[in-house]
Amino acid sequence: MPTRFFDGDCAAALTGAELDDLLGEGWTTFDDYLAAVRAIALPDPLPEGTLGGLTCGWVAKDGSSSEVHSLSLLMLPEDQVPARLIDAFDSKRCEAMYDGSICYLARSVDGAWIMAFAPHGGGSWEEPSEAFLDRAIAAAAGGVASRGGTPVPATRTARWWTLPSCEEFASEMRFDEIATGGFESGYWEGAEPAEQSLLDSAGVSKECPYFTSTERLTPDEQHRIFTVYVYPGGHWMWDLAFAEGDHVELAGAQAAVAVSLEDGGGVSPDDELVHVYATDGVNVVVAGGAEGADFAADIAERALAALASD
């Protein structure tokens, strides 16, 4: 079981006064914001916690003095960050995200590596300045130093899964058995977020989006979009994030649950967004999309078998 910064409590990361200064009065936590707007709110994985880290997010109130719509912080022990990425964000870097962008800045401060990031989609919200992101990092660094505690990563064992490439993973899951033309690997829109790439490089999280190959789709097959997430050593977060849901029997799983949003979570009023979460007692895999519970369960079972054979 890892020990995370602030014992995993985002309420301790920044003070109310610091958040007022950064986001203006009336800010809310990201989780509370999602609940208020009834956005997609499936169980939230915590793979950075496997490294002893913590991710926190807040949203500014419309009409506030904030220059950004929302702010997120990723805090990791510096020695858990892949060496090639330590200085990769030492100046502001913005990357495309759907119809907008997301801007990143990271600093190493007294053994902690802190990344601040904020989206920008035009409209009334400005692109976050480097000075703003620097202020957020400075505030977080102060919190880490005074009350963040000593993070301890989970101990790696031989039973941790090895992360495959998404293309190799698809082959091992035998997608040819469920779609004649197979599936393409990659994002339907946008690209992999920088924070996900970092966690992938650290060996604790893999996100593999797949979609039906339009060119190879046969007349009797339907178009599908779904994602498989892999969390080596992630069983520690089972009771914190994944224990609630409808029990599912899966070969190779110590426990498995399905969580659904019957209104499709904004995907489609006729679709049911379903994620199936499964653990072998050491690792966690998640399969989900708007393809129904049976499809998600089948993909999760295939993923368990493929990962166990590596």
In round numbers, the mean pLDDT is: 89
- Percentage of residues in helical conformation: 10-25%
Strand content: 25-35%
What order do the helices and strands follow?
Answer: HEHEEEEEHHEHEEHEEEEH
Shape: globular
Sheet of most strands? 7 strands, antiparallel
Give the tally of β-strands: 13
Describe the protein's architecture and organization.
The protein has 310 residues and is α+β, with helices and mostly antiparallel strands. It folds into 2 domains: 5-147, no CATH class; 166-309, 3-Layer(aba) Sandwich (Protein Transport Mog1p, Chain A), CATH 3.40.1000. The protein has helices spanning 16-23, 30-37, 130-147, 166-172, 194-201, 238-242, 293-309, and strands at residues 28-29, 54-59, 70-77, 93-97, 100-109, 112-120, 183-185, 206-212, 225-231, 246-247, 255-261, 273-279, 284-289. A 7-stranded antiparallel β-sheet has the order 7-8-9-13-12-11-10, with helices on both faces. A hairpin with a 7-residue loop joins strand 10 and strand 11. It is globular.
Characteristic terms for this protein:
310 residues; alpha+beta; globular; 2 domains; Protein Transport Mog1p, Chain A; six-stranded antiparallel sheet; seven-stranded antiparallel sheet
SSE order and pairing:
Elements: H1 16-23, E1 28-29, H2 30-37, E2 54-59, E3 70-77, E4 93-97, E5 100-109, E6 112-120, H3 130-147, H4 166-172, E7 183-185, H5 194-201, E8 206-212, E9 225-231, H6 238-242, E10 246-247, E11 255-261, E12 273-279, E13 284-289, H7 293-309
Antiparallel strand pairs: 1-2, 2-3, 3-6, 4-5, 5-6, 7-8, 8-9, 9-13, 10-11, 11-12, 12-13
